[in-house]
Amino acid sequence: MKIKGIHHVSAITANAKKNYDFYTNLLGMRLVKKTVNQDDPSMYHLFYADREGSPGTDLTFFEIPRAGHTYPGTHSISTTSLRVKDDQALKYWKERLEKFKVAHDPITERFGRKTLSLRDHEDQRLMLVSDEKNEGVESGLPWEKAPVPQEHGITGLGPIHLTVPDAEKTKNILVDIMGFREAGKYNEFTVFESGQGGSGAEVHLEERADIPREKPGRGSVHHVAFRVENEKELQQWQSIIQEHGFPNSGLVDRYYFKSLYFREPNHILFELATDGPGFATDEDIDHLGESLALPPFLEEKREEIETSLAPLKTQSKE
């Protein structure tokens, strides 16, 4: 029983419309699900992914209109990486980011891979990572209807960066409990990998005891989810987490996958999520994300929920 890799990352936006515009029209990701936060249906929950919404490709956002600025620091998921096919794709992206005046850094090598750091319009910290030399967890397939050439499109989630005041505590849960392996070091980071390894299954851990705790807001990351095969394995993971004394949510049915939440010792929220059943459960795969999707237990409140949400026009790019 192994963690297969990164499942999804969920972040915060203050404006769903601008968020949708950036991640679909500029980054070329596909909106595979327009739904609501199941714990607070008054806010949108948007899922961007590859063309099929494959596990390991989802970057999601909760809309909190009154969210303040993020003040970066420790106890945080400090960067979310997005995979691209090769080094040539990074050159394309550098030109595209310059064209649209998106804040970014020079192309830099990290852990043997070319990378390109950028920030979205809310200072969400992102990094494009080349798969040219990558081996391990397979990537997804870029959406063929995106405004980005398919050969340069985003193929999924890459390494997740954690910034903590005490790295040993997080290392212990990654290695001793979750079965990650230490894969190497670069700069101030220690790299841990799970399952088949590679970019889609890595956590890059940074220790910073010299900076304050992050104050989250728009542009911050709420949690990271890791892939497990199915509900049976998720139940086994729940037992393991409980045996080690970590309070947890118990199994939660998110309809598109089942989840378990807990906080690691540096207070970062971890989720374990099943690969299925997937986003095509309630929508045709050719029309994902075009209308407001609600899980069955919220369907009877559709009219109330739709009234509370600001209109957000989403449609397939033709």
Quick recap of the structure?
With 318 residues, the protein is α+β, with helices and mostly antiparallel strands. It has six helices and 16 strands.
What topology emerges from the helices and strands here?
Layout: E1 6-13, H1 16-26, E2 30-37, E3 40-49, E4 58-63, E5 76-84, H2 87-99, E6 108-110, E7 113-119, E8 125-130, E9 156-164, H3 167-177, E10 181-186, E11 189-193, E12 202-207, E13 221-228, H4 231-243, E14 252-253, E15 257-263, E16 269-277, H5 296-299, H6 302-308
Parallel strand pairs: 1-4, 5-8, 9-12, 13-16
Antiparallel strand pairs: 1-13, 2-3, 3-4, 5-9, 6-7, 7-8, 10-11, 11-12, 14-15, 15-16
Explain this structure:
InterPro entries: Extradiol_RC_dioxygenase, Glyas_Bleomycin-R_OHBP_Dase, Glyas_Fos-R_dOase_dom, VOC_core. This protein is an alpha+beta fold and 318 residues long. It has a single domain (6-308), classed as 2,3-Dihydroxybiphenyl 1,2-Dioxygenase, domain 1 (Roll). It has helices at 16-26, 87-99, 167-177, 231-243, 296-299, 302-308; strands at 6-13, 30-37, 40-49, 58-63, 76-84, 108-110, 113-119, 125-130, 156-164, 181-186, 189-193, 202-207, 221-228, 252-253, 257-263, 269-277. An eight-stranded mixed sheet has the order 2-3-4-1-13-16-15-14. It starts with 5 loop residues before the first strand and ends in a 10-residue tail after the last helix. The model has no long low-confidence stretch (mean pLDDT 97).
